[in-house]
Amino acid sequence: MFLAKSTNLTIDEANAKLERRFVSRFQPVEFSSYGIAGQTAEMLASIWRKECAVADAKTPDFARIVKDSKNNVRASLMALETELMCA
Q1: What's the rounded Cα separation, in Å, for the pair 39 and 33?
Q2: Which of 7, 10, 15, 40 is the most buried (most CB within 10 A)?
Q3: For residue 60, what is the DSSP state?
Q4: Which domain holds residue 25?
Q5: Residues 22 and 39 in one domain
Q6: C-alpha pair distances (Å), 33 with each of 13, 21, 39, 67, 72
Q7: Cβ–Cβ under 8 Å, residues 83 and 72
Q8: Nearest to 59, CA basis, from 40, 73, 46
């Protein structure tokens, strides 16, 4: 079971709502999206090169896609998918 931090519910609050026998089995995994913008933009560029079927399509600004997605990799991939469909 994965519990992600959100602005509405903290991990401690989520754990308080679960039975103690389940909480004792959890392994907390801390992660941050800080500093991943460059790598995410490179990944989007790589996907674009592999997936874009139109040779003369205008290449999107991958860094802007990542920034607009607030370093959220999934949101960046979804935005790139939209760009690919429109190309």
Answers
A1: 11
A2: 40
A3: P
A4: 1-31
A5: no
A6: 22, 31, 11, 11, 7
A7: no
A8: 46
